[in-house]
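request received
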Amino acid sequence: MSAALRMSTWLESLFTDVSADLQPSWLQVFRAQQFEKFLHRGLPTRKEEWWKYTNVAYLEKTKFSFPVLSEITKIPLKKTLDSAILMVFKNGRFSQELSRTHLLPPEVILSPLNQAIITHENLIKPYLLKKQPELRNSLAYLNSAFARDGMFLYVPENCIVPYPIHLLFLNTEQDDFISCPRNIVIVKENAQVKIMEEHAAYQANNYFTNVMTELYVSAYACLDYYKLQNESSTATHVADIQVQQKHDSHVNTFFADYGSRLAREDLTVNMHERNAACHMNGLYLLEQDEQQIDNHIYVDHVATNCNSSMLYKGILDKKSQAVFNGKVFAHAGAKQTHAKQSNHNLLLSPMAEVNTKPELEIYADDVKCTHGATVGQLDENALFYLRARGIEKQEALQILAQAFVEEVMQKIADPDVKKYIQQQVRQHANL
Amino acid sequence: MLKIKNLHASIQDEKQKTKSILRGIDLHVKPGEVHAIMGPNGSGKSTLANILAGREEYQITQGEMWLDGQNLMDLPPEARATAGLFLAFQYPVEIPGVNNMYFLKAAVNSVRKQRQLPPLDAMDFLTLIKSKMKEVGMDEKFLNRAVNEGFSGGEKKRNEILQMLMLEPKLAILDETDSGLDIDALQSVAKGVNSLRDPNRSIVVVTHYQRLLSYIVPDVVHVMVKGQIIKSGGKELALELEEKGYGWLNENVEQV
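response:
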């Protein structure tokens, strides 16, 4: 009996709940199809190559419920981004009173998804119902079935959004719930926008975030997408991020992962038109026993003269485990592809484990692709050198850990976002 | 200032075999004195310097080390540094990603904190370090580079002396600071060291050659062979070693 079938009783009852939402009939049909697909596929298993090192079978053991509305009236974070457009979701539901959108240019549509489904039905429908190949991550189907809220962003042609849009998913004061936010971002021709999607927790445990973010980037458009995963240390976070790039578009992504017991980031970039560029960077910091962070990236180079790069760096302590799998697929027509992948890991404990696999699959001529991965330990000589100058061991370790991630931090173009992430990294590199 | 009594130390080699390196070192350096430790390769000079600074891979099997009345044995390296011990490394470590100025400031303020002094603010720090850099003949551009990364041999050694001037230690140990230096660098390093000479400060110079000792004139010269100090004398002993080499001393080793 498959895992999904064993989960199916409580999943069915959750689905009944979702089906009762006020919604257009096409959405109801779509959800039912997606739910069927998930039940058919079941949870990802380690028999699938794409899930070889990450075991999510334990998810079937918890009977997750949907969260009840959160009562929290203040953002329980030390700091938020100063000048930003802020969209806050409490346990997956949009919170008007915690959000702050006055800096938004009037021509931009920014709306919680459950409202946008009604107010911008014709805009959203083709994106949700688009034909797509079988997804590698079956949990994305569960997201489609269960997604009740999230962000809908539409940046019209030639529009430059001057401030980052901070999308904050707060999981608060509840345990054992499942949250499936869905974000849809449409950046039209020659527009520019920066999005920071953050997942944070406050007094919440054993919950499960299953988020999906779709980013549609039109010709000549620029998108910076920052993802901060700072969930509770008992939580599970599975994310599916799909990027569709048109010709001459430019995307930068940055993933900062430090929370969760288990986190999985599945990033897929489709470059189906010429001259697109995507630069993917990330860091992960693991500091607990049994913590696992898994980054899977799939870049599909279909058209000519596209450029992609990956730089991911991680620091692992205790008995933690990290997985990195970056795959670049260059189809026969993808001439003049430039692709670069690197993954570097620093192990602070003999118990920590890294499975790293940069992969290239190339069917085109005239391409330039490189990849590399390293796993190393702290330089004892450097540590002694700092200590011999009076710097305490703890501080010396922090200095060296920060020096290790500095290379990738440099990739964050927005100074405010950089400062914000730096501050979180400092808290987490408290090794 | 520095008292070492009957110090024995060993290290485990790659084959997990214990190799004894120091075999009963006695050394007494009074405040204000400059001592030179000379000796052939592999005699244990650098090991002694590193053990004093707190390197952990050596096992101390016997003996005592005291700095200004403080037992060094149980102190971690950072506490030895804040207590006033400074080792100028034979091979200064390159630390990519760590800004040299940031590092120097962190070091200075750690030591100041221990001495119950307020931390230096950015302006005071900059003024101080620029004047010290001039003293050791170092270009200011090295402040904004990563610690020792891509520095030439001479620049690395100047950076060591710069750190020493900033930290104002009670006891400075120079581990072959002269190796790989051209004559200009040697002179500015010596100038830096001499500027620290003070009745309340001691200096131990570990070196192969007499060359550095013409610039930093020692009060006492020790000869170390096979983990033991086999002869001590005045500054003229260094000249004698330069002339005759270490061979003539070997008979002394066999006696002990």
